[in-house]
Amino acid sequence: MSGQQAPADLTRDTGEASPGVGSSLRRPDGDLKVRGQFAFSSDLSAPDMLWGHTVRSPHPYARIVRIDTRRARRADGVVAVLTAADVPGRNGFGLVVSDQPVLASDVVRYVGDPVALVAAETPEAARLAAALVEVEYAELEPVLSLEAALAPGAPYLHPDGNLVRAIDIRRGDVDRHAADAVVRGTYTVGMQDQAPLGTESGLAIPDADGGVHLLVNSQWIHADRNQLAAVLDLPPARIDVTLAGVGGAFGAREDITLHAHLCLLALATRRPVKMVYSREESFLGHVHRHPAVLRYEHGAAADGRLLYVRCSIDLDGGAYASTSWAVVSNAAAFAVGPYVCEDVDIRARVAYTNNPPCGAMRGFGAVQAAIGHEAQMDRLADALGMDPIELRLRNVLDEGDLMPTGQPLRGRLPARAILESLRDLPPVADRTDDGFGPMSGGLLRVPGGVGNVTHGEGIRRGVGYGIGFKAGGMPEGIRDYSTARVRLFPIGGEVVAQVQTSAAEIGQGVNTIAVQIVQTELGVADVMVLPANTSVGSAGSSSASRQTYMTGGAVQAACRALRERLIDLAHERYGHRADSLLEHGHEVVLRDGALLAGPEQHVARLTDLVPDDGLEEVRRFDHRATTPYGVDGQGEPHIQFIFAGHRAVADVDVETGLTQLVQLDVVQDVGRALNPVAVEGQMHGGTAQGVGLALMEEIQVSGGRIRNASFTDYLIPTVLDIPPMTTTILEIPDPEAPYGVKGAGEPATISSTPAVVNALRRASGRDLSHVPVRPWDLIAVEQS
Amino acid sequence: MSQDLSQELSQDLSLNVNGRDYELEDVPVATSLLSVLRDRMALYGAKNACEQGECGSCSVFLDDDVVCSCLVLAGQASGRTVRTVEGLDDDPVGGRVRRAMVELGGVQCGFCTPGFVVTATGILGADPDADEDAIRERLAGNLCRCTGYTKIIEAILQARTAPVDEEADR
């Protein structure tokens, strides 16, 4: 299916009733959401429903000596208490390896590992009974860092040892150069939380014949179902997973969390069971962005040309593998950033520890890498006395250049255009330009805000840039695909369309895109997207910025199959007339509920072609094959490269260490913006999450324990932390992708953090080796 | 032996929510307004995202004030008027806010959205000419993780100035 490009007429002028791709169609669920009527997974209920609660380990590493559930079972309102002994199938799950127990049986490996479940008549009764489950532990010495995990003699946290994966990517010879400038840096990145506003929640309903129906918030319901089948020892067909309303995801819902727990309780009690994690439990229940240690050495010639890059990236994977295998792959592949460098030595690894498990979060390894390579590029520019944008432009990737993996970059690349666009932005005013002095603009405009902590003397303004990229879609030879069923049927004198996929609408707008594609391909205005469920083939994950490409591709393919059916029906029904019109070199156009030959010539109305019982096609869409890494990390592991860049303007009070962002400018290539407003929304939201990582977001872990598992203590940006933003969308089509699209979800998250940190470096003059930047990192050191 | 007092002490409550009177029996005294709205009245518009008053997802009107319903005990709302996002259907300011939020892309996952609609309705209801700084300051108690706030601000600014369109706003 690859290689298709939309005919030029399938663009933005198909009329108001049928806007199609390229228009900013409003979200189909928007009206329900603003009225509070949209049913999120936490808003579900069923008659006779029970409430579930999880008993979790208080220790980072311990043997379970004994579990006594008798008191809990006797408590008011309790219907069931389950432990590992009640798991009928495989007591393990995981997207890559099934190393995570559904309920720990012998060992707990992190603070929060589930050990028992309670179902009771009310949430309070379930919570109280959970506290009555007595678990006796024999504490073990926890492994709390990657170094400790990989040290000789370290206890094995899993049977094959503590190294989850190591990837070395080497090209050329980093030792052959006599560089004019060498910059070395070590950077540490804190553990970030996805912090979707909706916590994990769902409802499991047992069915009459021993199966179960799960309604849950998720990013990939087929992966959920397949893992559940093994855990529950049921055939996959007996497990029906429906996507309930998802309150954000950002990677936190790739792995299953409460899914198996809900199903176990529902099957054990023969009653519907609901669970809703509190915010605290949400921090314990899902994986986080890997904390990282990045060590870089860049060598450059006097003219700025990058001669070599040597780097190591260490990720703390926490207690279970989750998607660490793929996160470390991304960190390695994108470690150099979007720059040409023939001689590279990249070593990346991720290890098991007894810290909270880490896995997917928006940007997925490339975020950590960009914090390293963009700090290095700024410092290299300073070492060479060059402008930071100029240095980047001198090295930026262009068509025909090679990745560190040796993968050639085909087609026009956007990185140079992004940098030029950032360079050409209108200059930023100095703070005092308007003549009103340093406090101009009011308290909201100064670091510390209405806290009124400064009269402005210590405020310094800095401008920083960052650019980053990653791959869209699944890498390394994974056979990734999506599936769509599109149905046309007559109703009330009109032909309408129905789309069924299993793609997780997590807020990003994949359902809106599906509607637009059907409108464009079939010329039908009224398009309904049915709730995602497992009655149709997998759509793959709503991750890696892939759904518009993949599920968009599947919807397009199903529509094009329907189009062929409509043409056949036109020939059958209108015989000679259709034959002569359609075989006269005219292209078939589907528009406004009619089939046309060429732009004008009416052939048939769809109502006259579509039979009463409808027309339906199901199509699977595959992208072209990729390859695994070979020797020295060489290969063609990636489908598509997606880029963004930022300029950040920040004011820093170097006396208090407080920061106020002044302006953010985002430039991103999306191939083609199928829905420009939705694309801008991804750019804004991705930028804001990057700002959070730059300035405030870090899960504080000590002794393996999360110390700030709440929105009081784990801060995410408010509206006052996010300054005015400009967005520039570049459209450099990918000829292999449907409509030329490129993934839009993640790139802005990658480049915003380093742009902000570089702005803080410029403002404060400090090196800033830790992200998020803390106030004490920014305070000027008195020179005496 | 610790006993949870909230299980022992309960009360009967009369609440007026969205113009309707509710008589609730045996509500434990520690129950939040958010909890009775969701679990007793099946009014799910107010969301439970942090339950610490940090995120504003549970915002409702208590008389004329916008409050976090997670921080108000159900008993404290007795004898007062509660309006949730579901009760703003006929509110002209709320209608303009809703329409602008959808039109301008202020909604993504939508979990924070009811809280923003209630808060913005409160802001513009009290101060129809609120400027952008005032709007930002008063929205600082509502967290959104998807939009980066930009389109929400644009929407509220548009709702402030948009002419009343009674058909579309309902």
From TrEMBL, chain A:
Alphabetical list of Gene3D superfamilies matching this protein: Aldehyde oxidase/xanthine dehydrogenase, a/b hammerhead (3.90.1170.50), Aldehyde oxidase/xanthine dehydrogenase, molybdopterin binding domain (3.30.365.10)
Source species of the chain: Nocardioides soli
Disordered, as annotated region: 1-30
GO molecular function: iron ion binding; oxidoreductase activity
Residue ranges of domain Aldehyde oxidase/xanthine dehydrogenase a/b hammerhead in the record: 35-141
PANTHER family registered for this protein in UniProt: XANTHINE DEHYDROGENASE (PTHR11908), XANTHINE DEHYDROGENASE SUBUNIT D-RELATED (PTHR11908:SF157)
Family matches, as Pfam families: Ald_Xan_dh_C, MoCoBD_1, MoCoBD_2
Protein name: Xanthine dehydrogenase D subunit
Domain of life: Bacteria
TrEMBL record, chain B:
Keywords for the protein's UniProt record, in alphabetical order: 2Fe-2S, Iron, Iron-sulfur, Metal-binding, Oxidoreductase
Alphabetized InterPro entries for the sequence: 2Fe-2S-bd (IPR002888), 2Fe-2S-bd_dom_sf (IPR036884), 2Fe-2S_ferredoxin-like_sf (IPR036010), 2Fe-2S_ferredoxin-type (IPR001041), 2Fe2S_fd_BS (IPR006058), Beta-grasp_dom_sf (IPR012675), Diverse_Oxidoreductases (IPR051452)
Record GO terms (molecular function): 2 iron, 2 sulfur cluster binding; anaerobic carbon-monoxide dehydrogenase activity; metal ion binding
Enzyme Commission no: 1.2.7.4
A Pfam family of this chain: Fer2_2
Domain named 2Fe-2S ferredoxin-type: residues: 11-88
Keyword Metal-binding applies: yes
Keyword field contains ATP-binding: no
Enzyme class: oxidoreductase
PANTHER family registered for this protein in UniProt: OXIDOREDUCTASE WITH IRON-SULFUR SUBUNIT, XANTHINE DEHYDROGENASE IRON-SULFUR-BINDING SUBUNIT XDHC-RELATED
Protein name, entry field: Carbon-monoxide dehydrogenase small subunit
Organism: Nocardioides soli
